[in-house]
Design brief:
Strand content: 25-35%
Domain Digeranylgeranylglycerophospholipid reductase catalytic: 181-269
Number of helices: 11
Number of strands: 15
Structural class: alpha/beta
CATH superfamily of the largest domain: FAD/NAD(P)-binding domain
Shape: globular
GO molecular function, one term: oxidoreductase activity, acting on the CH-CH group of donors, NAD or NADP as acceptor
Largest sheet: 8 strands, mixed
Order of helices and strands: EHEEHEEHEEEEHEEEEHHEEHHHHH
CATH class of the largest domain: Alpha Beta
GO biological process, one term: phospholipid biosynthetic process
Strand order of the largest sheet: 3-5-4-11-12-13-10-14
Pfam family, one: FAD_binding_3
Domain FAD-binding: 8-171
CATH architecture of the largest domain: 3-Layer(bba) Sandwich
CATH topology of the largest domain: FAD/NAD(P)-binding domain
Radius of gyration: 21 Å
Amino acid sequence: MTPETSYDLIIVGAGPAGSTAATYAAQAGASVLLIDKKKDIGIPLQCGGFLPRLETLQELVPNAELPFTLESIPSECIHASSSVQRFIAPNGNSKEFEVDADAIDRRRFDKYLAKVAGKSGAQLMAGTNVLEVNGTTVKVDGVFGEHTIHGKVLIGADGPNSIVGKAKGLVRDPDPMGTGTAFEYEISGVDVDRDAVEMYFGKDYVPGGYAWVISQGGDTANIGVGIREVLFRNGMSARDYLERFMYEHPIASKKLTGGSIISVVSGLVPVGGAPKVTATKDTLVAGDAAGHIIATNGGGISTAMVGGKIAGQTAVDSLEGKCKLTDYDERWRKEMGLEIKTAVYVRKLMDNLMRSDSMMSAAIKMIDPEHMKALQCGQLPDAVRKGLIKMNFGIK
């Protein structure tokens, strides 16, 4: 395709945030160009694809208006469904709570969202890299050639290392503990619990983080580790930790050893919260670029889509003179800012807990399932807070 020379909105990044922003803006009548560096939207993967069902998502961000694309996800985008989330402590004890969720096929889901954006009227340029950002003008190059394109509003939905965010100063303060690495395998030939999502803790396998096992149906699963590089032991990499978990963990290895690795997935996960500012007079950031993620579990699909929806709507409202573009900061924080901020606080608390296997095991034993579910959603129930104080954990 040959793009127009100008658009109302230029959106960089066709993941859940960018495609959702494009859909809502295009449906409101704006001219939208959606750019993504991937030649094949959704590939390579950068996420395990765990997505709770609509009712749980609404509990996660109760003040948010969820995008319509989360209301009914096409069956072909779902690998498998689960009804239980299980925590396995370093000492091997476990505790679980009920949660209805799906293991999403991100390849198909991201394509689905991009198709919805296209049907809504947005133009899509895949295989296109942004070389330069100058105001709201972008210089791009890729499979469709080199172009200079002007937009009235620019939206950066291009991940934790956002080119748009860096160009406009919409970035988080440096924090080595604020960015995690997710390293994952898709494996076949394994016998895992198909009804449960399992999360494993223990500093020998995932110091300061957790490992997971998510069934994708049949004998296939997604396994991975979420870990901060600053906590790696000398000479260890994220792959080394995943290999140790897969082959040496006393519980997980019995389910996973002998499996065939059919895909390797990796990516950065921004768990440090949102930048202080996510909007200028002509530019917004959304999704991972804006820290729209629940830091306690690394889940960001739904919150990215909420941020994208608000970004697309705010951009159109500003073009119509109904608001300032900088109102975006207040709008998204009103819908999910408290939950994202609280999740960062709880994540920091958990960081301290996970430095000690005995303390983490004691905490999992102490916390009842419903409170555990709340913690996973980035909430800190008062009863849990009081319990941790009794353990002399040192919080106020």
